[in-house]
Amino acid sequence: MKGQTVSTMESCTGGAVVNAITNIPGASQVLKYSAVTYCNEFKIKMGVSKDVIDKYSVYSMETAREMALAITKFALSDFGIGVTGKLGKRDINNEFGDDNQVFISIYDKNLDKYTDFNVFVDRDDRRDDKLEVLEVIIDKFLNYLEKCDG
User: Would you say residue 1 lies in a domain?
Assistant: First the structure.
């Protein structure tokens, strides 16, 4: 990453992404900030547009993008990772969206570019779902960084 930094705003992964980052020696030189925003109220307080949540739902790529952008701005980092979705459980406060779909967006401030992808999970164990999502995020982010450096 050559002096670049990353921040995360996670919902359904509950901090799994930032945990994986902090498991790497030297993470304090790369990680600027992380927020686990499980409810809409705190996504909005962190800078996610209420209008986007109201229009597209909290379970959408638009919201994941807002999360990635908001955390990048808040932490003044080079990259922001936004994660939102459902891991097999109905949310009575947010009825929209597939119960097994997770939306992920990586925002690159320097290129003003989003890399978006989603993951469908359908395991019996929530921890396994989180691990599957985490593996995809790490793979996509590392591949993106390799392309930028290459």
Answer: no
